[in-house]
Every structure is written in structure tokens, then in C-alpha cells.
Amino acid sequence: MLPWGHLALGYLVYTLGTRLWNRRAPGGAPTLVLAFGTQFPDLFDKPLNWWFNIFDGRAIGHSVITTVVICVLLFVAARKYGHRDLVGAFSIGVFTHLLGDSWNVLLSGSYGRASFLLWPLLSPPTYPKDSLLDHLREWLGFFQTVPGSSPRLLVETQFGLQLVLFALLIGVWAFDGFPGPRTLWNLITSQRSVTD
């Protein structure tokens, strides 16, 4: 999945859970932490691949084992210092990221292509070497084919499906009152006033 697909999947799962569990829309701080969590595996693994040629973009940060350890440590700290809601949001973000990267290969029965989920017990699969520039070229190529494509064809592609998910995210986020930006602004401006 691409970054906006991970963000959309994570937020949609989180807001549904928050509304069912707490009977309210998500708060600003948990939404920001959730957004970070939806990107965390890639923020960890992609630089290792692109800059240091370690693994192929999915290993340490995409491992269920690593994720469980990190989330358990965060929950232990949250019990001591509070903010379990933030750890819950982060955990949902990370686990929906793993789900987004593995659901199609798991459903197709290509379990070896999802071996990154059990790193270090299993070796991660080898993917074709790619870079951020390769991803940008792929996205640009997709957008060049959009004008002549039918809406059905767009939705049937992974890329198009993620764009639909992102559009749904924007609508649900608006319905929830756009949680997050005001909290971020308050954090930025309050830190400025402390350091000035």
C-alpha cells in the first residue's frame, strides 16, 4: 500500500472502533499518533533499504513480532505514565499498516511473499530494488492513464482502490470534525512560546 492508503485504512478502522467503543469521534492527539503509526513501518524499513541497502523495504518494521514487542513496551509505559489512548491509536495504525501490506498475498495463498510478518523467524522476501524515485515514476504513470480509464478499471487496481479509500477518509474525517490539525497547531505554537 501507498502512504495515503495506509492512512485511510488506519483512520477508517480507528474512527469506527472509537465510535463503537467510546461513542464519540476520535480526538486530535490520538489521531496524530494514529497517522504516525500508519506510516511507522515504512518510516523504519524504507530508509534502511534506500540508504543502507538493508533488506528490501519490509522486514524489521513490518514484523508482527517487532510490532508486538514495541506495542507491549509502549502499553507498559502508558500504564505508568498515562496516555493509553495514544498507545492504542499507534498500535491500530501499525497493525493496519501490516494488514494493508499483506492482505492480498495472504488471501491469494502466497504466504512466502508475506514472510516479512514473521521476521526474524523467517527471512523477508526479496523484492525488486526500488527507490522513492521509482515509486514517483510509477504514480506518475498511473495518473497519465487515468483520463482514458473507466471508473471501474481504476477501482479494480490497487492504486485506484487506495485513492477511493483516501476519498472516503476525507469524507469521514470531515464528518468527525477534522481531528488533528488544531492539536498539531497548538503543539507547534505552544512550543514556540516556550522557546521564545
TrEMBL record:
Keywords: Hydrolase, Membrane, Transmembrane, Transmembrane helix. The chain crosses the membrane at residues 59-78, 159-175. InterPro entries: YdjM-like. GO terms for molecular function: hydrolase activity. This is Metal-dependent hydrolase. It comes from Halobellus rarus.
